[in-house]
Write a structure and sequence with these properties.
The strands form seven sheets. The chain has a seven-stranded mixed sheet, sandwiched between helices. Strands 22, 23, 24, 25, 26, 27 and 28 form a seven-stranded mixed sheet that branches. A five-stranded parallel sheet has the order 9-8-7-10-11, with helices on both faces. The chain is built from 19 helices and 28 strands. The protein has 670 residues and is an alpha/beta fold. The chain is 32% helix and 24% strand. It comes from Flexivirga alba. This is Phenylacetic acid degradation bifunctional protein PaaZ. Pfam families: Aldedh, MaoC_dehydratas.
């Protein structure tokens, strides 16, 4: 009997439970039931124990804990254990790599991106400050803060490890505890992964719980600050959308559901082009990996009319080499479906498609492998010109349909008839074909792969969701968004517009706000370690007069002889400058000479500037001075230094702003 991890302990139901069968042998792997689980206690535990513990941590600290999770699951003994159990789900070794290593890689990616792109804080400013008054004493700032709720994550059967990890990572980094509810059929693999995480004590108690079995009345326990992320069928998604907690209780629901994804072969491609082989390989890969049980798999193969027969012939030839059988056998390319019930569903979908399509490869009722296993041959169909079922029926298995089109505009219309998809691909080497199809199909897709000979070698393929890109899609695909890098983290958080004085916004955000107090001391801030430096610490420099000799010398040494710096007559006619002006980069260089403290010290390196703007031209005879203020301090969790962002304001002798930018430095912690 699988156990749930609920309210701080493992719980085993006394009910008989439902049997979970090995997809290959039909033997019972485990039984599952959630009868007796205290769902209310799980929600309370998440909110009262897990949530506060996570929210005490900064984004970087949370990200480091996610890295610890990824490192734990990467241990050879644990990964081998997961792979061994994964065979029971019907997954081949390659399928398991997509699920297990793909999930681990997603967690690593989230940990890295969060530490690079979010502050080492509990509040994330969103964009620049907005000045709300003429004098600058009333300003606004959008910020992201953690919600005091729980993330309920309901996952599908086809990716029991990746599905759990890709939802857990962004939710945890955002500050939310998770209750993971895997699909029952393959829940034993999810339970194993969660058990190893809990045993290792990597995460704060209450931040990760597991519900094995039916969700029951779990949604009844959720309130306005809580969220549900669901991956599964449109039918179940409809039930969730109608739930009282979602309709009237303020619970946020994200859905990733049925998706009739397509791949479009460009009108420019012939059988002799490398794009033709790329197209065929892509279709076959999506039919065979995970036995086609992927929400991103290609279901509709959209090709120019004259290419229908060559495409069918090429796909069929490749499918001939795709051995169906026991996933433990290294020669097997296509394992069984997850269950006999799933095989019946796929057969039913194929029959529905056959009302307006002909099978041109495979037999869905042919005997394959062990008769106790949920095996099915890959099946390729050729859709009739007037077929509607091919755009409405999703066979969740190794099945695809070839559809002909007459023009690029026709291909776009066919792609859109899927009513919204997670991913589409366009295989072409013609930029105009790519532009027309992508612009027309983009509103109907969450992601589009444009594949040709140039990117094929490094492309991750049609069906691979990537942690740095959005995974989701409009319409039929559910309308939700997951992943997307930091977007996936911020999606779980509350964005609030804060209005107040610059000093108040600085205190709230932990980032110096223009107009805030500057602390000018005798000690140059470059002499301060990260432990000593404070937000608002400032150096105000003396002035430096810019001479014509400076401008000429800079032009000669850099080769930047733009007329506004070198030709008095032409410069005088310039409506902006009205005469010779200093190079903007000369101003930046001289500004550095004014504010830099040259001796060895805590400042280790300058690694760039952000948001550089030149505001007022500087002419020979003008003088400049600088105010450099510590704007944001970000200690790195894994190094003995951190990043300091400095606000740099360069002004002329009249107090006018000449240039503004952020200087980025690495500063020792001690």
């Amino acid at each position: 009997m699988l156990e749930s991890y609920a309210a701080g302990s493992w719980f085993r139901s006394d009910a008989e439970g439902d049997p979970l069968l090995d997809a290959t042998t039909g033997e019972t792997v485990a039984r599952i039931s959630s009868v007796g689980v205290d769902l209310a206690a799980m929600v309370r535990h998440a909110k009262e124990v897990g949530g506060p513990a996570i929210r005490e941590l900064t984004f970087h600290q949370r990200a480091m804990l996610m890295k610890e999770v990824a490192l734990l699951l990467s241990k050879p003994e644990i990964k081998a254990e997961l792979y061994d159990v994964s065979f029971k789900t019907g997954a081949t070794k390659k399928d398991s790599w997509v699920d297990i290593d793909g999930g681990i890689g997603t967690v690593f990616s989230y940990s890295s991106k969060a530490r690079r792109e979010l502050p080492n804080s509990t509040v994330a400013p969103d964009g620049p400050m907005e000045q709300l008054s003429k004098g600058g004493t009333f300003v606004g700032q959008h910020v992201f803060t953690s919600r005091p709720g729980v993330a309920v994550e309901i996952n599908a059967f086809n990716f029991p490890v990746w599905g759990m990890l890709e939802k857990l990572a962004p939710a945890f980094i955002s500050g939310l505890p998770s209750i993971v509810k895997p699909a029952s059929q393959t829940a034993y693999l999810t339970e194993l992964a969660v058990r190893r995480i809990i045993e290792a004590g990597v995460l704060p108690e209450g931040s990760l719980q597991l519900l094995a079995g039916s969700a029951g009345t779990l949604l009844d326990e959720l309130t306005v600050q809580d969220s549900v992320a669901f991956t599964g069928s449109a039918h179940t998604a409809g039930f969730l959308r109608r739930h009282e907690s979602v309709l009237h209780g303020g619970v946020s629901l994200g859905v990733e559901a049925d998706s009739l994804n397509c791949s479009v072969l460009g009108t420019d491609v012939t059988t002799d082009d490398p794009e033709f082989d790329l197209f065929v390989k892509g279709v076959v890969a999506e039919m065979t990996v995970k036995a086609g049980q992927k929400c991103t798999a290609i279901r509709r193969v959209i090709v120019p009319g004259p290419m229908i027969d060559p495409v069918i012939e090429a796909i069929s030839a490749r499918l001939d080499k795709s051995t169906v059988g026991d996933p433990r056998d290294e020669s097997t390319r296509v394992g069984p479906l997850a269950s006999l019930a799933q095989r019946d569903e796929v057969r039913k979908a194929i029959e529905a498609l056959r009302s307006s399509a002909d099978i041109v490869y495979g037999d869905p009722h042919a005997a394959v492998g062990d008769d106790r296993g949920a095996f099915i041959q890959p099946v390729l169909l050729r859709a009739h010109a007037d077929s509607t079922q091919v755009h409405d029926v999703e066979p969740f298995g190794p099945v695809a349909s070839v559809i002909g089109y007459e023009s690029t505009a026709d291909a776009v219309q066919l792609a859109a008839r899927g009513k919204g998809s997670l991913v589409g691909s366009v295989v072409t080497n013609d930029p105009e074909v790519a532009r027309e199809i992508v612009q027309g199909a983009a509103p109907w897709h969450g992601r589009i792969l444009v594949l040709n000979r140039d990117d094929a070698k490094e492309s991750t393929g049609h069906g691979s969701p990537l942690p740095m890109l959005v995974h989701g899609g409009p319409g039929r695909a559910g309308g939700g968004e997951e992943l997307g890098g930091v977007r996936g983290i911020l999606h779980h958080m509350q964005r609030t517009a804060i209005q107040g004085s610059p000093d108040m916004l600085t205190a709230i955000t932990g980032r110096w706000t223009t107009g805030s107090q500057r602390d000018v001391e005798d000690v140059h801030p470059f002499r301060k370690s990260l432990a000593q430096l404070q937000i608002g610490d400032t150096v105000e420099t003396g002035s430096r007069t810019i001479t014509l000799e400076d401008i000429n010398d800079f032009a000669a040494k850099t080769g930047d002889t733009f007329y506004a710096h070198t030709d008095p007559e032409a410069a005088a006619k310039n409506p902006i400058f009205g005469g010779i002006v200093a190079h903007g980069y000369l101003i930046v260089s001289l500004a550095a000479g004014l504010f830099v403290e040259p001796n060895p010290g805590p400042v280790l390196a300058n690694f760039g500037v952000d948001n550089l703007r030149f505001l007022t031209p500087v002419k020979a005879g003008d003088s400049i001075s600088v105010k450099l203020t510590a704007k944001q301090i970000t200690p790195r969790q894994t190094a003995d230094y951190g990043e300091v962002r400095w606000d740099c304001l360069v002004t002329n002798q009249d107090g006018e702003a000449v240039a503004t930018y952020d200087v980025l430095t690495l500063v020792a912690k001690e």
